[in-house]
Amino acid sequence: MQELGEIVYPHQMATAHVIIKCRSGLEDRVVEHLAKIDGVKNIHRTVGEFDILVKVEAIDYESLRKIIRWKIFTVDYIESVTTLMCMRKSMCVVME
């Protein structure tokens, strides 16, 4: 039986995950706007308390904050935004 190995990749970019609540029925419009924002890497529709999960990346944390504050917060039909900033020294671990 083969043992699992680990490959570790350090994050080079500043990263955040943003969870969004939208006005009911307007989630698709919000997703369309988010998809046009530079720095938005992934967008997922969700079920439950929040409507959308967005992964955002930028060259540094100041640029990341500007994207979130001045581009994501200002999208029409968003009711609330919660930002989860990833730690600078975070690592991705891939199990093989």
Please explain how this structure is put together.
- With 96 residues, the protein is α+β, with helices and mostly antiparallel strands.
- It has one domain (6-95): Lrp/AsnC effector binding domain/regulation of amino acid metabolism (RAM) domain (Alpha-Beta Plaits), CATH 3.30.70.920.
- It has helices at 27-35, 61-72, and strands at residues 6-10, 14-22, 40-45, 52-58, 78-85, 91-95.
- The strands form two sheets. A four-stranded antiparallel beta sheet has the order 3-4-2-5. Strands 1-6 form a two-stranded antiparallel ribbon.
- A hairpin with a 6-residue loop joins strand 3 and strand 4 (52-58).
- The model has no long low-confidence stretch (mean pLDDT 87).
Break the fold down into its secondary structure elements and pairings.
Blueprint (H helix, E strand, L loop, with lengths): L5 E5 L3 E9 L4 H9 L4 E6 L6 E7 L2 H12 L5 E8 L5 E5 L1
Antiparallel strand pairs: 1-6, 2-4, 2-5, 3-4
Classification by helices and strands: alpha+beta
The number of strands is: 6
List the secondary-structure elements in sequence, H or E.
EEHEEHEE
CATH architecture heading: 2-Layer Sandwich
- CATH homologous superfamily name? Lrp/AsnC effector binding domain/regulation of amino acid metabolism (RAM) domain
- Structurally, the number of domains stands at 1
* Rg from Cα: 16 Å
